[in-house]
Structure to design on (426 residues):
């Protein structure tokens, strides 16, 4: 692209992102059915024509939201594979995985989309499926690949890496994710409070999957 | 109550339950906003007048749904406290807890209500709060009380019983609960498949919280 085209592309991307951010807010606040395209356009400060042109219809906006979230999960653990190869202990390795994982998932944006996808899954099963496989599923596969390295290095004993990845995810996210879902007024867990959940999860996971003597 | 009054009470209770079951279906299928009181009345085969008389309005129906689910959690683990006192090992005790727990929570009725509560939490924070504290929270407190017994008997080492209860819940429910939320077409996990998740969760939890030598 020429610099001029590139700048235009960036502007379009930024505008698209702003529309999607506003749409997520409106969907979560009013429900998918309750949020009209008039409201979406007003919140995003664009015309309804622009909205239709870019996304087709309201369904298209929702689909683009899920797609964007899935695209953002570009193997966030890829960089961690080398950490797995060099970590001096299972606990150190699991701690770095756990921090990366909770940082990626315990954020307000992801938690709001999670709420919307769960709410609309009966009406949009294909979008829930996409979120499940391309978002959630990919992080489990990446986690499992990291745990396999630790098993090979005999730092942990992990007979079923995918099941173990779910265990680690459950230990780390069960508390913050449920609180985000059932107490939307509370801030998404962060800082010292999240650190404590992560540390406890790391300790429990590492002990459960410690090498068998 | 006289037998005649009792029979009438039972009939009213059964009718009320049938209306709530139909309402939960309609809410999950069409969303809270999308399910009109006309639809709720038609699905439940009652008049709109009856619906208004019994529940006030649509909000009242939703509130009654959450209340019913919370009432059903009448300390399902109370009967297990004696099991905790007599179990011959930590693993046996945790297995009986885990089976009771997943049986209570991994059922289609609870999972559909869970979806509805998550969907509507931004608009009905007080109902999400009720579900969280009176439903979810009570099971965690009961689980924690059971784990405390096992710690006292030195079958496990449980420094923070409530945190440990969340860990057990996460290990057992993370997989079936997420699948139920994101793949609503799939049947709620049960039978051999659920047994495997429970067995793996029990093994991991018991090893992580094994007595410190």
């Amino acid at each position: 692209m020429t610099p001029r085209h590139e700048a235009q592309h960036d502007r379009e991307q930024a505008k698209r992102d702003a529309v999607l951010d506003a749409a997520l807010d409106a969907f979560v606040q009013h429900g998918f059915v309750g949020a009209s395209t008039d409201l979406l356009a007003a919140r995003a400060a664009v015309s309804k024509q622009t909205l239709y042109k870019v996304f087709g219809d309201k369904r298209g906006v929702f689909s683009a939201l899920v797609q964007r979230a899935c695209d953002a999960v570009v193997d966030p653990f890829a960089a961690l594979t080398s950490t797995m190869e060099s970590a001096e202990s299972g606990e150190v390795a699991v701690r770095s995985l756990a921090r990366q994982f909770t940082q990626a998932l315990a954020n307000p944006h992801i938690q709001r989309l999670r709420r919307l996808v769960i709410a609309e899954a009966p009406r949009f099963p294909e979008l829930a499926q996409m979120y499940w496989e391309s978002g959630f599923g990919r992080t489990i596969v990446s986690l499992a690949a990291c745990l396999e390295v630790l098993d090979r290095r005999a730092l942990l004993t992990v007979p079923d890496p995918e099941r173990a990845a779910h265990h680690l995810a459950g230990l780390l996210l069960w508390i913050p994710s449920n609180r985000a879902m059932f107490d939307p007024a509370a801030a998404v867990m962060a800082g010292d409070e999240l650190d404590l959940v992560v540390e406890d999860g790391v300790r429990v996971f590492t002990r459960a999957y410690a090498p068998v003597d």
Summary: Residues 3-34 of chain B form the longest helix (32 residues). The CA atoms of residues 5 and 11 of chain B lie 10 Å apart. Chain B is about 80% helix and 0% strand.
